[in-house]
Amino acid sequence: MTLLSVQDLRVTFGTADGDVHAVKGVSFDVAAGETVAIVGESGSGKSVTANSLLRLNFGADVRTSGRILLEGRDVLAMSEDEVRAVRGRDVAMIFQDPLTALNPFYTVGRQIAEAYEVHHPGTSKKDLREIALDSLRKVGIPEPTKRVDQYPHEFSGGMRQRIVIAIALVNSPKILIADEPTTALDVTVQAQILELIAAMQQEHGSAVVLITHDLGVVAEITERVMVMYAGRVVESASVVDAFATPTHPYTRGLLKSVKSLDTGRHERLESIPGIPPSLIKLPSGCPFHPRCSFASSLGSRCSTEVPELRAVGSSSSACHLPNERLLDLLGGAHDR
Ligand SMILES: Nc1ncnc2c1ncn2[C@@H]1O[C@H](COP(=O)(O)OP(=O)(O)OP(=O)(O)O)[C@@H](O)[C@H]1O
Ligand SMILES: [Mg+2]
C-alpha cells in the first residue's frame, strides 16, 4: 500500500546570488512499513526533499511545486492547520543534531509529554507521565523514573538522540523521517541508534525515510535506496542491487568511497574526483558529466542532454550509457 507518493517535486530558493534549484523533479513512493534511504553528497537536495514532506523549508523566497500525497492528501495543498496536525502525528522527523532538537530548559519527560499532548489534548498528567516513562524505556534509557525529570544536558549525545527518537515515536507516526540521525555520534553509538530505529520501526510498523551520505549506514537497515545528485534522483534500486550492480556512475563512485564493509580493512577511501556542481548554474546535460569517467565515451550527448530515469535491470538509472554497458562496467564496482 502506498503511504506517500512524491510526484515531480521541485524546490527553488530565490537568493541574492540567483535562484538555487535545490530539488529538480524528484518522484518516489514509500509503502507502509518500508524503509527507504536517500543518499548523496552534501548539497544534493536530501534535506530539502525531506523538509518538503512536512513543509519545513523556510526562507524569504521558497518556491515549491509538484505533489506530496500522504494517503492521497496533498501536503502542499493543505492549510497551515492541516499541516500542523500532520506534523509529529502522521509524519515525524528526527534531525541530525540531538542538541538543537531538544529544548535545554525543559525536562526530557516534559518534552515527550508535550509532543503527545499536542495531538491528544485533555490527557491527564498522570497518563502523560506514564507515557513519557514508557517512551524512555522503549528507547533503552536506563533508570527511566530518575531520568524522566532530568534536562537534556544531563545526557550523553547518544542518549539525547534516543530521547529525540522517543519524541518522534510517541504518537506512533506512519512515517518517520530521519535526516542524518547518526552523523553527530561516534561509531559504536551510531550502530546502536540504527538498531534502535530498525527495532522501533518493526514495533510501530512505521515507514522510515533515512537520509544519509553514508552508504554503509544504508546497508544496515534499509531495503531500497535513492541516490540523489544535484537535486535529482539518479538511481533508485533495492539495496542489494545498488551494492552488487550499481547502475549509475555516481553510485559506483559513492560505493568506492565507502570503507570496505566486508573486509573491515582500513583502506584509503577513494573519493569521487571533482566537486558537486553549483545549483545556481548547473552544467548543461547530465549534471554529473564533468566528473564522470564514462562521459567522453558517448561523444557530446552527456554534455547536452539531461538523462531521464529509466529501467536498467531491476533498478532505475538516469544515465545515457546503454544498459549492457552500465551493468557490465558498474557491476564490477566491487573489484577492489
Ligand atoms: N533556505 C534555503 N535558502 C537557500 N538555499 C538553500 C536553503 N536550504 C537549502 N538550500 C540549498 O539547497 C541545496 C540543497 O541543500 P540540502 O540541505 O537539501 O542538501 P543535503 O543533500 O541535505 O546536504 P547535506 O548532506 O550537507 O545535509 C544546497 O545548495 C543548499 O545550500
Ligand atoms: Mg542535509
From TrEMBL:
Pfam families in UniProt: ABC_tran, oligo_HPY
GO terms under cellular component: plasma membrane
InterPro entries: AAA+_ATPase, ABC_Ni/Peptide_Import, ABC_transporter-like_ATP-bd, ABC_transporter-like_CS, Oligopep_ABC_C, P-loop_NTPase
Limits of the ABC transporter domain: 4-255
Protein localization: Cell membrane
GO MF term set: ATP binding; ATP hydrolysis activity
Example GO biological process: peptide transport
Keyword Nucleotide-binding annotated: yes
Membrane topology: Peripheral membrane protein
Family matches, as PROSITE patterns: ABC_TRANSPORTER_1, ABC_TRANSPORTER_2
Keyword terms of this UniProt record: ATP-binding, Cell membrane, Membrane, Nucleotide-binding, Transport
Full protein name: Unannotated protein
